[in-house]
Amino acid sequence: MDQSVKQNIKSDSQWLRVLFIVLYGIAYQVAELVVLFVVIIQILFALFTGEPNQKLIQFADGVNRFILQILQFITYKTDEKPFPFQDWPELSAELEQPSAHLKQPLVDSEKPAADR
Asked: For the region Disordered, what residue ranges are annotated (predicted)?
């Protein structure tokens, strides 16, 4: 076996990275469940109120960015460990303003028959 391979196998930093990959893999699985929960709640909001909940959209944006950070770390794209080793991902600029398509009034044909 090549000497550099032996050094890499014995390297503490390599094994520490593997440990973080396992831990972030678990965090990824939990985050997926959170996203699934948000999807179900958003479907219910959309069905009962006609539009999704803006707070949940913002929360989901943060979770989505956290998942992206995890994937980038565990696939060795970056060496920066995601949250909690850095700040929680910030909202995208487009989410800081309310969505224009969600604020449009319903067309007369979309309104319930009792409101016409």
From this structure: 97-116
